[in-house]
Amino acid sequence: VIAAIVIITPALAQNPLDFGLLLDNKPIRTADPSAHVWQDGRLYLYTSHDEECQADFHMKDWHVFSTDNLTDWTAHGAVLSVDDLAWADDYAWAPDAAYKNGKYYLVFPAGTGVKDRANPKNSTKWMGIGVAESDSPAGPFKDVIGAPLWRTPYANDPALFIDDDGTAYLYFHGIDFDYRVVKMRDDMRGIDGDFIKMDMGGYEPKMEGPWVFKRNGLYYFTMPENNRVLTYYTATSPVGPWTYRGEFMAQEHQSNNHHSIVQYNGQWLLFYHRWLDTPEAGCNKRQRHVAAEYLQFNADGTIKPVQRTDT
Ligand code: FUB
């Protein structure tokens, strides 16, 4: 479903990518961007969606946007909602996508219940990781499994990485924010084997939102450390052991960040979200929206620190 074609005016010459996405000509509060370039050469962005003035991350659906020039974006609308799921009615958090077997897969966290911060024992909240399928990169996606791959009190932020040999690895963080990976079955409808707790070389801050990519034969495991500062590790295998390499984007507003990294037309791009003042919304709080910056590497493969470009 194509909801709207929008023109985003470049903000600054050095960063034509710090944009506000629109849906039906209105701003849409997007977060947790997962960027991919598929066979058709377009760049697709899979995002979660904050309700206007939302609180406590009660989120209902996932959206897709695409472009072939980083300026003109097509909004494909909500491509999956918790209303489509038999097993969850809330917490439509950070998604990722993959292409395999001629199909497109949306992997996503969702859940139900409520968290009782004062008395955690009274919490009824749980979250699981689901996988939905589509014949189109722009969805809509269908949960053909009808159940989460697994559920825990807090399974979140899944990221899929498909290696050159076609093996799909699923990374996520769990209740203790540790570092896990599991192979996906070839049909992508289940996991293959046990969860592997990865060797992080002795440096293990809490993480959210893992994102793995490969460049010049080197694997990069990137994350919002303590959910705020973008940091990374490298390894010669997609399951580690990993070596910590440090920070490449500082935190902003003491708020969470969530990112993805993709190569498009020969340039590396970092998509992430920002918390910006939205006085027009009337809720006296910052709201999230997706932004992007170019990403540069040093000759030794390390990532150059990225500055946010202000609009
Ligand atoms: O958008 C909901 C949650 O906030 C995500 O799953 C986290 O990564 C953080 O961005």
From TrEMBL:
It comes from the Bacteria. The keyword Hydrolase applies. One of its GO terms (biological process) is xylan catabolic process. It holds the Pfam family Glyco_hydro_43. The record marks 157 as: Important for catalytic activity, responsible for pKa modulation of the active site Glu and correct orientation of both the proton donor and substrate. Keywords: Carbohydrate metabolism, Glycosidase, Hydrolase, Polysaccharide degradation, Xylan degradation. InterPro entries: Glyco_hydro_43 (IPR006710), Glyco_hydro_beta-prop_sf (IPR023296), Glycosyl_Hydrlase_43_Enz (IPR052176). Gene3D superfamilies: Glycosyl hydrolase domain, family 43 (2.115.10.20). GO terms for molecular function: hydrolase activity, hydrolyzing O-glycosyl compounds. Belongs to the glycosyl hydrolase 43 family. This is Glycosyl hydrolases family 43. It comes from Rheinheimera pacifica.
